[in-house]
Amino acid sequence: MTVYEHLLKTREKHKAGYFVLIDPDAWSLNETINFARVISQSGVDAILYGGSLITNDGFTEKLLAIRKVVDIPVILFPGSIGQVTSSVDAILYISLISGRNPNLLIGEHVTTAIQIKRSGVETISTGYMLVESGRVTTAEFISGTQPLPAHKPELALAHALAAEMLGFKLLYLEAGSGAERPVPNDMISLIKKNVQIPVIVGGGIRSPETAREKVQAGADFVVTGNVLETSNHTDLLQAFVKAIHGK
Ligand code: 1GP
């Protein structure tokens, strides 16, 4: 089964799936391993790995260590071309469709396409939409793009429909890591009502209640990152799993 098929199955089984983002910069190697073990035992559906800005060493070392201790898919969520690796179960093959930066729409993909094809790693084409969230996020700054206005759900819908018609397999509605406000519920609902491809929602989700709201609005998958970068993440992880899986 491909990772994409596994994700679709997860969506059938639960109300929504839960992804945890591991930012390689947030943890030491040992902390990363411990965190990955806890994630794997908590019922999380997949790990996303990557970040908009990497400033520490050990990107690949941590990735390989995670894969040794978990039995759920580890999916690369590349913040830049330098993070592309085949040492993952799949790559979220992201095109930043909310922006008009040609490099992030198609340029970087062309640069890595032959290498990725040769490696045989699964790619999951993903229309990535940055949504304005109260303050400038790293993703917004680094990408040099303007996010979609949070109060214009119909503009977001137009992007989502274009992504679906272009053949993307997933949509990622992103408020940005550490966002002040997550993606608005009315934007998620409008997109879900009109688009068939699964929708991932992430950025600024700090509580299981908020995660549940996003699922009720229509999110097929919810991502959390920052909020778990604290010492007591075990209970919180379980609360997120429960809220998102709908049990
Ligand atoms: C960022 O959506 C993810 O790409 C997670 O964001 O760190 O704010 O949870 P947070």
Assigned CATH class: Alpha Beta
In the CATH hierarchy, the third-tier topology is known as TIM Barrel
Total beta strands: 8
Overall mean pLDDT score? 95
Identify the CATH homologous superfamily.
Answer: FMN-linked oxidoreductases
With helices defined by DSSP (H or I, 4 residues minimum), what is the helix count? 9
Strand order of the largest sheet: 1-2-3-4-5-6-7-8
Secondary structure category: alpha/beta
Number of domains: 1
Low-confidence stretches: none
Concise account of the structure shown:
It contains nine helices and eight strands. Helix 4 (102-119) links the parallel strand 4 and strand 5. It is globular and about 45 Å long.
Topology (elements, then pairings):
Layout: H1 3-13, E1 17-22, H2 29-41, E2 46-49, H3 59-69, E3 74-76, E4 90-96, H4 102-119, E5 122-130, H5 138-143, H6 153-166, E6 170-174, H7 185-194, E7 199-202, H8 208-217, E8 221-224, H9 234-245
Parallel strand pairs: 1-2, 1-8, 2-3, 3-4, 4-5, 5-6, 6-7, 7-8
Helix pairs in contact: 2-3, 6-7, 8-9
The structure holds SN-glycerol-1-phosphate.
